[in-house]
């Protein structure tokens, strides 16, 4: 079975040539796929019946996601979707909308690239559920198309895509890049490259490889610490990659693409939010031309808390005064567990989230990673 959404436009040209179809046929199909978002081959009414029948008998299908659940935040700006892939795998995607004066809202889809994640970052709900499988490019596309269909019903459209949902995009490199190419191709989804951001836990070889693609997508690197000791406790798979290696990789990415790199930094109460830590972070990043996005950590089962507003602003001030460009990420969707690091799809999801919010220890789940890493000792304030 091949999903037509998997095919890059030149591959669609090739398929139509192989089937003896006229040259315009590929454009006709691509136009339908990316402007009308049909749900089945049968809906491609502009194609001759014989071609639709031939495609179906050759194993071509359309679309991989069906919606299982939809939860919208109180302000209506964040919607979390639980989607089922064709083989039954469950993943989550999030739509974040930002009202814009006098126009359509900015509508960003946060897509998953894996079911679960093997990286095990200690404060991340996806990391704690373990790894299930990589998603195919067409399954990433299916998330965007699903939201595009939803938005079209209200006269809106997808304006941005961020690879910040479940999973590590660069650990699923080929499928992630194929998904990006499908999204940016003018004969495909047609999104501007600058409207796409890939977030990575920091796989240096893959960052260099990405810098060598003829792409100009935004890159965010999840740094989380100014030194290797703290980073290795928060990101157990950091291995021999040092924070210095990440700063160098960001520099190379910038030189190759002219896109400024963002470092994401999860602020964890008593762990990574002290003034001293901010000073060290400023020392690491000063002059690197990067931007820091501070993310007050969202509650998950790891038992990590969010710093007070005062401490967040203090951290930001020290970074700024230390010569580092930074912003605090605006919180979206935390009450529906759609915020950063809160995506997980096990059956116990909702109950667990409620317990997490109340900071009640969570019983281990069957069939999942059984023990959470031991708590990190608090730093002195
Ligand atoms: N695997 C990639 C992309 C998905 S995670 C990565 O790690 O970058 C997207 C972002 O959410 C990352 O910066 C991640 O560190 C952050 N994140 C994970 N858990 C979080 C939590 N509980 N609170 C705030 N941010 C979190
Ligand atoms: Fe995976 Fe990113 Fe979560 Fe780390 S933060 S476990 S890399 S999804």
How does the SSE layout of this entry go?
Elements: E1 2-3, H1 9-18, H2 24-36, H3 49-57, E2 60-61, E3 66-72, E4 78-84, E5 90-98, E6 106-110, E7 114-116, H4 125-129, E8 131-134, H5 137-152, E9 160-163, H6 173-184, E10 196-200, H7 204-211, E11 218-222, H8 228-234, H9 243-257, E12 262-267, H10 275-285, E13 291-296, H11 309-321, E14 325-328, H12 349-357
Parallel strand pairs: 1-2, 6-9, 9-10, 10-11, 11-12, 12-13, 13-14
Antiparallel strand pairs: 3-4, 4-5, 5-6, 7-8
Bound molecules: S-adenosyl-L-homocysteine and iron/sulfur cluster.
Iron/sulfur cluster binds next to helix 4.
Rounded to an integer in angstroms, the radius of gyration calculated over CA atoms is: 22 Å
Strand order of the largest sheet: 3-4-5-6-9-10-11-12-13-14
Fold-level CATH name of the largest domain: TIM Barrel
CATH superfamily of the largest domain: Aldolase class I
What is the number of strand segments?
14
Assembly status: single chain
Give the biggest beta sheet: 10 strands, mixed
CATH class of the largest domain: Alpha Beta
Mean pLDDT over the full residue set: 89
Low-confidence stretches: 347-381
How far is the first residue's CA from the last residue's CA? Answer: 58 Å
Tally of individual helices: 12
Bound molecules: S-adenosyl-L-homocysteine, iron/sulfur cluster
Shape descriptor: elongated
What is the CATH architecture term of the largest domain?
Alpha-Beta Barrel
Structural class, from helix and strand content?
alpha/beta
Number of domains: 2
Strand content: 15-25%
Order of helices and strands: EHHHEEEEEEHEHEHEHEHHEHEHEH
